[in-house]
Amino acid sequence: MSRLLSLVSKFAVYVQTLLLLLSLVAQPQSPLRCSLHQDAEGLTGAFFYLETASLVVLCTLVTYQLLVGASEPGALPTQLSFPTPLAGLLQGCGGSVPWSLKCRLHVTLLHLSETPQYCDILLVQMASGRTLVFGGRGFVGAAICKELAKRGLTPVLSLSRSQPAQSEGSTIQEVGGVDALKPETFESLLPDARAVVIAIGEPPWVTDKERAMRSNGTTNITIMQTAAKHKVPRVVLVNATMPSWGVIAGYREGKLAAEREALSYPEKCDSPCSVLVIKPGAISGTRQEGCFQVPLWLLLEPMRLVMSALSGPCEAIERCFPSLFGGVLRPPVRVEEIAMAAADVVEDTSFKGIREIGTKELVGYTSAGSQKKD
Q1: Which of 52, 272, 340, 360 shows the smallest number of beta carbons within 10 Å?
Q2: Is it the case that residue 74 has pLDDT exceeding 60?
Q3: What is the pLDDT of residue 167?
Q4: Nearby residues of 373 by Cβ (< 8 Å), 6 or more positions away
Q5: Which residues have C-beta within 8 Å of that of residue 301, sequence separation ≥ 6?
Q6: Beta strands in the chain (DSSP E)
Q7: What's the predicted TM-score (pTM) here?
Q8: Which domains does the chain have, with CATH numbers?
């Protein structure tokens, strides 16, 4: 049944693509129409019933997916690639896309790739939009959840191993029992995801190398590999900038492995997507440890002021001794700045590609851009 629905929906999308070309030809200012030297305005009307039927099919399939999608995964395809000159034709027409395809009923959306060799037709599921934050009850993860909720980028799902203690009316939905090493505990949440934010790991002072590599590397890698399988369009990885000290070898190797996986995410996802790797040094803020609040800012904020004032000499020392001082002499980043950077990528649907952002850009970060405060 699932295979049949997939074939029917693909056929409906191909019909919509044909209608897209026809309506482009019919546009008065269309270069494509001018190049054909013909009046094709009647074509759209001639195919009115075909367009209506294809839209009805797509709407029915979307509704079916929403109702029984959990038992019939993959019934509705999320992307179809067209290795044709269609993208180039659209770019020649100023990127103008008929509202019937782009907006009507939120069924289909045309995405133009950066290179005009192909284009993708993406099916927009009406239930999409949730953001999954792994480690959402942690120091950084909780700040990201709050920032997403403040911007109205809901629903926000805070995923953790412990069982939730959620208060009624909260805009942040806590999901417990999630093991990052076991995809079956969270995979069902990915098909409708707007973005995945990964803010899990253990501190660098964990001396067990195997444990440090697993919690800072393998967990992150497993999440990204599973997200790529479901073509989640945006991934944010909270990583770190650190020196090459032997005592933190497991922590460092785990973080580097996670970063490599993030950089290869677009290739494995094989779909238009955006990846942000956040690489702070020390993180300032108030950390919740059980029933107690640890005011890290009492120590780190003065350090931030001093290191910012002496940024020139500190950078020179790091360049001379990177393995010894890499990331150590950089100003601490406020946890709110990390949250804003992560939320910007989740919110900005136009950004595609890979971006790394380190301490220099994070210190003084303001929403919707890496801007410095005076």
Answers
A1: 52
A2: no
A3: 53
A4: 364, 366
A5: 284, 332
A6: 79-82, 108-112, 119-123, 130-134, 156-159, 172-175, 193-198, 234-238, 274-279, 283-284, 286-289, 292-295, 333-334, 353-358
A7: 0.65
A8: 2-123 (no CATH), 130-362 (3.40.50.720)
If pLDDT is split at 50, 70 and 90, which confidence band does 61 have? low
CA trace torsion 87, 91, 92, 97 (10° rounding): 90
Tens digits of residue pLDDT in 275-296: 999 999 999 999 887 788 889 9
Give the whole-number percent of the chain exceeding pLDDT 70. 62
Distance CA 243, CA 334 (A): 20
Predicted confidence at residue 62, as pLDDT, reads: 53
DSSP string, 128-146: --EEEEETTTSHHHHHHHH
Instruction: Report the alpha-carbon distance of residue 280 to residue 328 in Å, rounded.
Output: 10
Q: Which pair of structure tokens corresponds to residue 314? A: 């500190």
Rg of the chain over all Cα atoms, to the nearest angstrom: 24
- C-beta separation of 283 from 335 below 8 A: yes
Q: 3-state SS of 286-341? A: EEEECCEEEECHHHHHHHHHHHHHCHHHHHHHHHHCHHHHCCCCCCCEEHHHHHHH
